Amino acid sequence: MDEEILSFIDNHTEDALRDLIHLVRIPSVAAEGGDSMERAAEAVAKMLEAAGMKATIHPTSGASVVTAELDVDAKRTLLFYNHYDVQPAGDLDMWDSPPFEPEIRDGRIYGRGVADNKGDLVSRIWAVRALTESGLDPPVNVRFVVEGEEEISSPHLEEFVRANRDFVSADGGIWEFGGEGLDGRQEAWLGLKGIVYVQLEVRGLSHDAHSSMSCILPSAAYTLVRALDSLKDPEENILIEGFYDDVRPLTEPEREAIAVIDVHEEEMKHHYGIDQFVLGLSGDALKERYYGSPSCNIRGITTGYQGPGSMTVLPAEASAKVDFRLVESQDPETILRLLRKHLDQHGFQNVKIAWSEGYPAAKTPVDHPFVEAVSRATERAFGHRPVIHPTSAGSGPLYLFRGLVPFVSVGCGDYDSRAHSPNESIKIDNFVRSAKRAVFVMDELAKM
Amino acid sequence: MDEEILSFIDNHTEDALRDLIHLVRIPSVAAEGGDSMERAAEAVAKMLEAAGMKATIHPTSGASVVTAELDVDAKRTLLFYNHYDVQPAGDLDMWDSPPFEPEIRDGRIYGRGVADNKGDLVSRIWAVRALTESGLDPPVNVRFVVEGEEEISSPHLEEFVRANRDFVSADGGIWEFGGEGLDGRQEAWLGLKGIVYVQLEVRGLSHDAHSSMSCILPSAAYTLVRALDSLKDPEENILIEGFYDDVRPLTEPEREAIAVIDVHEEEMKHHYGIDQFVLGLSGDALKERYYGSPSCNIRGITTGYQGPGSMTVLPAEASAKVDFRLVESQDPETILRLLRKHLDQHGFQNVKIAWSEGYPAAKTPVDHPFVEAVSRATERAFGHRPVIHPTSAGSGPLYLFRGLVPFVSVGCGDYDSRAHSPNESIKIDNFVRSAKRAVFVMDELAKM
Q1: A216 touches B at CB < 8 Å
Q2: Dihedral over Cα of B7, B10, B13, B14: its sign
Q3: Chain A touched by B357 (CB under 8 Å)
Q4: Which residues of chain B does A325 touch, with a Cβ-Cβ cutoff of 8 Å?
Q5: Per-residue H/E/C for B371-410
Q6: Model pLDDT, residue B311
Q7: Residues of B with Cβ-Cβ distance to A347 under 8 angstroms
Q8: Are B222 and A232 in contact (CB < 8 Å)?
Q9: CATH class for domain B2-190+364-447?
């Protein structure tokens, strides 16, 4: 089947890009909401229908979930997970062209969402269209789940998955993101870490006091600093009792997989302007930490006066945003309970967990046959096998599909794609090859 | 001499208030600068001249210092220290009447600077005027030093004092502030604590990273938290080696003075919405801490994302503003050096002291005869002896006059004066009595 399909994709690159441009022009910023969300959902549904699929828009209490299905009564079923929402544009002055008016320059297409995640979505829709318009049945049943709240933590995806367990169950799934690494090699991600994210708040006084009063009045800022310092020692060990109880070591196949990964330490150090990684780690130890360790991070702290010069204040309150990234089998609710217990036992009863959110990690085993299927498909489309990352250190709603579908995340991004930043872009060549890879994934899954 | 002078003051209250209103209408906000500063200096000089004194405007690299002298060849000399600059008005919506359009309501006058420090200044000028317009020589030589940068840490007062040591040397001095406490009793303050104020900065990365990278990238926020926590233990002991070396215990006269002070613990707790003071202190222990202990306070911390909801960031940098209040004989430069040494020795070489300022404490001994002179003068003007505070916990440029003049700080403010806040005000009755007290201070100093 190869040649005909591949030609169709090459010959319809302009049409696929036109679909992508149409979709990027709809500013479906989940954080802002508004009627763009529904317009984007409808546009996606139309594109799915144009590819010969039956699309449905499912209302939720938030943004709609769009699904589509092409049931060819095949033995295997492939599921694509994508999202039509995007990050806010951010500082418009930082964009070389308007974020919602896509522009093509030097073989790349620029605009908010082209990398994350509208480019992936459109390339996958065109993969199906290449088959159906060529008059061919895909070798597997194909399904799409396209949500509109991924950038705001997918608050309604769980209710959708719970109500549609049969629909989302599949023999293989392609997750939303991925692409080309620093060295030009394709990367495939098999999992996401879990997360517990908390806002810690301390109120020390009913109102700010003059800083001279700090000799006798309690300090919210110092209480918060002490609480934060109590969470982790200088060797990066998280000090919450029981925190590591459910952490399991990397499996042997995972160790083998990461052994061949080049994390480009020097380039990364240069990129972040650092002399060394935490604890001076490098090589295998660094990789084991990245793929296999939970972490504790301060995302932000705010208290008191932060402007230029001086203001003589003892701040009444202080707050911090902290996240814990979790590895497989750590339970977010347990971690949250252990955190509260830790604070109480260390004298921080007045450090309030003002709000929290969290979900567990999820990953597809490195030796799952579908991983090999995606690797072969990638080799056919890009000419080389992808680097296999047992997990990303990031988090996402992958866990909702645990036990229902083995997901692998590959996509049309690259090292310069700047997802979430100004001048987001993808290479058009990767966009085209990603559509081809999606076709090959169907083929490889059928053979699996 | 009493009756004639007192009658003059009573009869010219309207005129004195007119002067005060005139001065408050000039928005001499030191932090904002502009031509208001020079207009205020000139207005002050005119008022001093109108009181029969010889006034001089001394340019500095910042705002001018206004001085005045009435040399009657007396044995003793009295020096008044005041400032004509004021704090910014702050949020105009919080003011019941415009900050620079003074208004009289219910026996109080409202406006920015009436309490801090234009009311005190005008009341003192009118004390001299009461004598000279009555055709009387004051019983002491009188001098004024009125600066225009007190609210921005008096950056040019040192150069002025150094160049005018003879002029500022006197047998007694009245410092700028003071007034009526919570219980209606007058308060006199004999000193100010010293201060070291630093901005601590940590740069961990050249730019913010995704928070998932915190498992392998250094955290500026955590480094800052650890550095701050290393400065002080939970029992409020400052852990910088050598920090307490030069701290001397309170003197016996100071202990006797504070023994009779009622700090109104319950009212203060209610005011600040707290159940207890630091370390659960109360009574003598609380007072000893307030009057005799240095302190370490976090004025502000800023790092990372501080808005609502979540943003997945590992912040590249973090900073904190920290002040140390010092007691007598602690040297700010030594403390700053010890702080740097502490940070280096505890592995915080990358915590930068981005800038610092500081000056030492200063106080007049509780048993100095001029303290008694001011107490008597207060009793004659207000009907009761003042509460003697060996020091304020606040800081100011008092140290510049150490060895040159014994200062006592009394003034026309009260517990509701809201200096530095919206609706700053004073009681007109206190304004009038403060003018009378200034006359009595001259009389008592002459007898000293």
Answers
A1: yes
A2: negative
A3: yes
A4: 211-212, 214-215
A5: HHHHHHHHHHHHCCCCEEECCEEEECHHHHHCCCCCEEEC
A6: 76
A7: 234
A8: yes
A9: alpha beta
B299:A281 CB<8 A: no
Model confidence band, residue A152 (pLDDT cutoffs 50, 70, 90): confident
Please determine, for residue A311, whether its predicted confidence score (pLDDT) is greater than 90: no
* Domain assignments of chain A as residue spans, ordered by start: 2-190+364-447, 194-247+293-359
Chain A contacts in chain B segment 104-123 (CB below 8 A): none
Q: Interface pTM (ipTM) of the complex?
A: 0.90
Give one word for B206, left, alpha or beta, with left for phi > 0 and alpha for psi -120 to 50. Answer: alpha
CATH topology for A194-247+293-359?
Alpha-Beta Plaits (3.30.70)
pTM comes to: 0.90
pLDDT tens string A35-71: 999 999 999 999 999 999 999 999 999 999 999 999 9
Instruction: Specify the pLDDT at position B1.
Output: 58
**Chain A residues in contact with B229 (beta carbon < 8 A):** 225-226, 229
Residue A299 and residue B313: Cβ atoms within 8 Å? yes
8 Å CB contact of A216 and B286: yes
In terms of Cα–Cα distance, which of B328, B319, B196 is closest to A300? Answer: B319
Q: Is the pLDDT of residue A1 over 70?
A: no
Interface probe for B, chosen from A116, A153, A210, A212 (most Cβ of B below 10 Å), is: A212
Interface check A34 vs B, CB under 8 A? no
| C-alpha distance from B271 to closest chain A C-alpha (Å) | 8
Give ∠ CA B148-B149-B151 in degrees, rounded to 5: 120
B258 to chain A: which residues are within 8 Å by CB?
A: none
Query: For the domain with range B193-247+293-359, which CATH number is right: 3.30.70.360, 3.50.50.60, 3.40.50.2300, 3.90.1150.10?
Result: 3.30.70.360
Nearest to B215 among A295, A302, A314 (CB): A295
- C-alpha atoms less than 13 angstroms from C-alpha of A309 in its C-beta half-sphere: 5
Which long-range contacts (C-beta less than 8 Å, at least 24 apart) are formed by B180-186?
B180/B413, B180/B414, B180/B415, B180/B427, B180/B430, B181/B387, B181/B414, B181/B415, B182/B264, B182/B267, B182/B415, B183/B262, B183/B264, B185/B384, B185/B386, B185/B387, B186/B378, B186/B382, B186/B384, B186/B385, B186/B386, B186/B387, B186/B410
DSSP B250: P
User: Which residues of chain B carry a pLDDT beneath 50?
Assistant: none
CA distance A394 to A415: 16
Question: Residue B226 and residue A229: Cβ atoms within 8 Å?
Answer: yes
Distance CA A358, CA A336 (A): 9
